[in-house]
Design a protein that fits this description.
Blueprint (H helix, E strand, L loop, with lengths): L5 H8 L6 H19 L3 E2 L2 H9 L8 E2 L2 H16 L16 H6 L9
Parallel strand pairs: 1-2
InterPro entries: Phage_gp6-like_head-tail (IPR021146), Phage_HK97_gp6-like (IPR006450)
Pfam family, one: Phage_connect_1
Protein name: Phage gp6-like head-tail connector protein
Length: about 110
């Protein structure tokens, strides 16, 4: 279950006219990117997390979605939406600070070696 609704995505992107299938793809990609960074599964509500725990599918440290997680997903979504190509030519590019990482880092587990 997605934590970002289509209405939230459209409001964040300020573009109510784009294709629903494309926007859903970007929403899912943004959420998967955030979950991968955290190294843990994130659930939209307590019931879905409880169901996953009962089924043994929740992982070691499941987490409920919260405002920082949703905000990070929206930042990632905005980046994916605005940058639809891997390479931009004819412009000067500057990397923006990764606000999404700042929002997600306190919840990250399993940093590794």
């Amino acid at each position: 279950m997605s934590v970002i609704s289509m209405a939230q995505a459209r409001a964040h992107l300020r573009d109510p006219d784009d294709d629903d299938d494309y926007l859903q793809l970007l929403i899912e990609a943004a959420e998967h990117s955030a979950v991968n960074y955290l190294n843990r599964l994130v659930y939209a509500d307590a019931q879905s997390m409880a169901d996953a725990v009962a089924a043994g599918m929740a992982g070691e440290q499941p987490m409920l979605s919260n405002a920082p997680f949703k905000s990070a997903c929206l930042l990632i979504l905005g980046h994916l939406y605005a940058n639809r190509e891997d390479v931009v030519t004819g412009t000067i590019a500057t990397e923006l600070p990764r606000g999404s990482q700042a929002l997600l880092t306190p919840y990250r587990v399993g940093w590794g070696v």
